[in-house]
Amino acid sequence: MIQNIFNTPIYLSKLEEPVLNRSVMTMMNDCIHTKNFRVESNYGGLQTNKYDAKTNEKLAVKILEETTKYVESLQRKKQFKITLNGFWININMKNHFNIEHMHYNYQNKFSGIWYVQCGEGSGNLVFKGRDDFVAVSQLDQYFEDKFSNEYEIQPKPNDFILFPSYLKHWVKPNLTDTPRVSVAFDIGFIDV
User: Fold this and answer.
1) Buried b / exposed e along 82-116 (16+ C-beta atoms within 10 A)
2) Whose CA is closest to 162, among 80, 70, 88?
3) What is the pLDDT of residues 78-133, one digit of tens each?
4) Which pLDDT value is given to residue 144?
5) 150-153/46-48 β-pairing
6) What is the pLDDT of residue 142?
7) pLDDT score recorded for residue 33
8) Is 146 helix (H, G, I), strand (E, B) or coil?
9) Nearest-5° Cα angle at 125, 22 to 102
10) Can you name the residues that pair with 113 across neighbouring β-strands?
11) What local confidence, expressed as pLDDT, does residue 120 receive?
12) Does residue 62 sit in helix, strand or coil?
C-alpha cells in the first residue's frame, strides 16, 4: 500500500476583479513615481513597502473572503479571527525574479499571491518541500518524478494562491517583455 506523507494543502482560486486590478496598477504607478520600494526577495524588479489593510479596503476584504474559503476547507480545532497582516506589490520586468524565501514568523500563518498581470513565460511559482537537509537520494534517476521536492505552478492572470507561511518558495525569471505584477500578502490568526 502506498501512503502519501507530509501533506501541505494550498488553495488555488481566481480573483477576477477589474476594479481591484486597476487600483493595484494605480498603486504600482504611484510607487514607481515616488520610488517607494524595498529589497526583500526580489532580484531586480521592484517590491513596494508593506501596506496595511486600510490602504486598499476593497482588496483587503477580497483577500479575507478568499482566505475564509481556504480556512473553512480545513478542520478547525478552535475559533479564531483571520487578519490581514499586510500586503505589497511585486513588479518583475524581463529577467527579474524572486529568490527562495518564506514568510513565516510568529504572526504569519498563511501567505498568498494574487497575479494581477502575468502570462506564459513570465516566471513560474515554485514551492519547495520540507526536506531541506535530506537529499532526494538520486531516486529521480530511477523513477519518474515521484520523489520531487518541488511543486511548480505556471501562474495565469487573476490566479489567487494561498499557502502556509512556512512553505519555502520562489518565482522563476520573467522571460517576457511584459512586467509580471502580483500582490503578495500575509495572514494571521487571533484567538477568540
Assistant:
1) bbbbbbbbbbbebebbbeeebbeeeebbbbbbbbb
2) 70
3) 999 999 999 999 999 999 999 999 998 889 999 999 999 999 999 999 998 766 55
4) 67
5) unpaired
6) 66
7) 77
8) coil
9) 100
10) 161, 184
11) 94
12) helix
What type of residue sits at position 101? H
What is this structure's pTM?
Answer: 0.89
Return the higher-pLDDT residue of 7 and 172. 172
CA distance 41 to 18: 27
Alpha helices (H) along 73-157: none
Given the C-alpha cell 523513477, which residue does it identify? 143
pLDDT value at residue 8: 85
Phi and psi torsions of 14, nearest 5°: -120, 135
Identify the residue with better confidence: 148 or 96.
96
How many of the other CB atoms lie within 10 Å of CB of 62? 16
How far CA 13 is from CA of 17, 41, 105, 183, in Å, comes to 13, 24, 25, 14
Q: For 144, which DSSP code? A: S
- Rounded Cα distance between 28 and 46, Å, is 9
The upper half-sphere exposure of residue 40, i.e. CA atoms within 13 Å in the direction of its Cβ, equals 17
Q: What is the dihedral of CA 93, 94, 100, 103, to 10 degrees?
A: 20
2: pLDDT confidence band, cut at 50, 70 and 90? Answer: low
Question: Of 110, 111, 115, nearest to 92 (Cα)?
Answer: 115
One-letter amino acid of 166: Y
Under a CB-based contact definition with an 8 Å cutoff, are residues 107 and 50 in contact?
no
